[in-house]
Amino acid sequence: MQATTLSWNSADIKILTLVMIIGITVFCFFLGVPTLIAQSWLLSPPPISGRTVERDSIQPADVLARVQLFLQQLASIRIEMGKPQDTRQMHLATNARPHEVYFQALTLYIKADRFALELTGSTGLKPIPVSAEDISPYHVWLLVNAAYRRLLVIKTELNIPESFTERPSPATTTPTEVGRAIVQANRQLNVMLQRRFSPSEVFQQLEAARNYAQALLKGFGRNQESSSLPPFQRGKTPTDVFLQLIRCFEQLEELAKVSGVSILHLDGTAARKVMPEFQVQPSDVYDLATLLLSDLAYIHGKKNREHTLPTVPFPGTKFPSHVFQLARGLQGQLDELYGLARENPDWLSH
Predict the structure, then answer these.
(1) pLDDT category, 328, cuts 50, 70, 90?
(2) Same structural domain for residues 181 and 287?
(3) Residue 9 belongs to a domain
(4) What's the domain range around 254?
(5) Is 162 left (phi over 0), alpha (psi -120 to 50) or beta?
(6) Same structural domain for residues 207 and 101?
(7) 3 in a structural domain
(8) pLDDT at 44
(9) CB-based burial of residue 75 (10 Å sphere; 0-12 exposed, 13-18 middle, 19+ buried)?
(10) Residue 227: predicted pLDDT
(11) Which of 153, 157, 195, 306 is most buried per CB count within 10 Å?
(12) pLDDT digits (tens, 9 = 90+) for 303-325
């Protein structure tokens, strides 16, 4: 009997290699290897301060140092792409809390991941979500670092050789300083995206904020849906929406004050003064809507710590006028909440 010999062409070898890779991947998945790799990936590189990446160790200074490193890497990509620098400045927030900075960092990651997807075709891993009540600088650092690593993927893809070294930030760094740096990075990222943040995504954030406001109203026995919207007004611009959200935040500050909750202070008067020169973009409105959402989620967490609301699906095509209508509806809910909280200042403890 004549022996049979096997001949392998390049296509056979590719198929066999693919099958082996899939098999190894499935095997490692059941061993929990992806989780270990993801955790290691999210913790590297360590902070320049030498602190360990742990909840009780990471400080705002560590987060700011990583944001500054992110900005340096982003600038090298911007120059390579020939994109303009966003030089707009509007520092309106003071007394920021970790949960507010966290939501801005989450936006940073989402934008950085979208940026990397556009340029490399890959998506990244972000840290596991955490409740607003439990957020610390550690959780913010994880998000910023995840966003930073997405930039490294882009630099590898584009063969950008420049490297940068992280520099320590002052030990006195505050969450407000971290938040401002992240907002600046978010603005620059939006300039560089092919698909920039749109009114539809702002609408989605505000719908989530309204859901939290409605859940808080139900705590007062307002089981009737307080979601009726004011009349639709055509021709609104991102600036109109931004100013309406400023009014919403001013009312939210009053609600927080009478409820004994600390949130950041937003200087609405200063915002109105700089509006004519600022050239508001939908991404700026998105950042402010995210801030409102973060504080409503935080207040909701104090009332209903174990209950989180479902995510809001993408609403389809929306324009600034649709977002403006929704923002006015949110203000109506906040007005009602404020009146109820004034009559029941300890409502969050019941």
Answers:
(1) very high
(2) no
(3) no
(4) 197-350
(5) beta
(6) no
(7) no
(8) 85
(9) middle
(10) 61
(11) 153
(12) 876 667 778 999 999 999 999 99
pLDDT of residue 208: 95
The model's pTM: 0.83
Rounded CA gap, 191 and 188, in Å? 5
Based on the fold, state whether residues 170 and 90 are members of the same structural domain.
Answer: yes
Tell me the H-state helices in the chain.
10-31, 33-42, 60-81, 98-120, 137-158, 175-192, 199-218, 238-259, 268-278, 282-303, 320-343
Residue of 106, 97, 100, 150 whose CA lies nearest to 128: 106
Extract the tokens encoding 94. 């003071």
Q: How many structural domains comprise the chain?
A: 2
At 69-82, the pLDDT tens digits run 999 999 999 999 99
- Cβ atoms of 205 and 294 closer than 8 Å: no
Cis peptide leading into residue 45 (ω within 30°): yes
Domain final position from 196, 217, 239: 196
The candidate with the shortest Cα–Cα distance to 297, out of 347, 305, 272, is 305
If you write DSSP's letter for every residue of 121-147 in order, what string do you get? S-----PPP--GGG--HHHHHHHHHHH
> Is residue 202 located within the same domain as residue 181?
no
Choose the final residue of a domain: 170, 196, 222: 196
